[in-house]
């Protein structure tokens, strides 16, 4: 009986598989796989692996998700079919599909932290076609694509608020704002560093801009040369300001945790100011 069942199964597979392959090529199977992942219809890793084998897809170990969204959320992307073709042709390891009101591109690469060639191409497309592009952090488990696609979309949403002129945004660049947006407005002050509050209060009373100085110093990797260039200051002037910052706030410029907390406090304050401005409008 079991032998007969096995024979029936093999016969059915032989009958079904050719017509299936005649209708669906590997690229179509791969695209449907991505859409099913995004829509939550594919949630089991074993089934995902089976679908990947059916698509003949052997991806590299690292992924990022990029979303390309139109300038206006109400309209779609003009020339979307052409852009899909261009992305697939230029980035052969990647998958690009239509999804909701934009395009989703699953970037695939071997080397961790690699940006080229996709970074340059996405920036070019964003400028030429008036698109906003959000790019997630790296991940390795493809089953988590919906989560990382969500962060790529949030990168666009936040960038439109904090830096409207920026066309391409990595989620890591706006992550502090994502965290700030999840904190109740009344509670944000409790998350701000005491040393930041001391320095910010001094700036308000004296108009010194020391918080901006320290923020630039941290963003430049604690390099006085780069920070001085960014702030258009002489290095001696910057050094004097840093000494003043330490004197007023007591912050340790060699303590990475203190500097990280200070920078996050700056982002919280920036988010507060943005929310106030939008409320006034």
Number of helical segments?
13
Average pLDDT, all residues: 88
Q: How large is the share of residues in beta strands?
A: 5-15%
Sheet with most strands? 5 strands, mixed
Number of strands: 5
Strand order, biggest sheet? Answer: 2-3-1-4-5
Unreliable spans are 7-24
Helix/strand structural class: alpha+beta
- Large-scale geometry: elongated
End-to-end span in angstroms? 76 Å
Percent range of helical residues: 55-70%
Radius of gyration: 25 Å
Order of helices and strands: HHHEHEEHEHEHHHHHHH
Description:
The chain has 281 residues and is of the alpha+beta class. 61% of the residues lie in helices and 11% in strands. It is built from 13 helices and 5 strands. The chain has a 5-stranded mixed sheet with strand order 2-3-1-4-5, with helices on both faces. The longest helix has 25 residues, at 256-280. It starts with a helix and ends with a helix. Mean pLDDT is 88; it is low at 7-24.
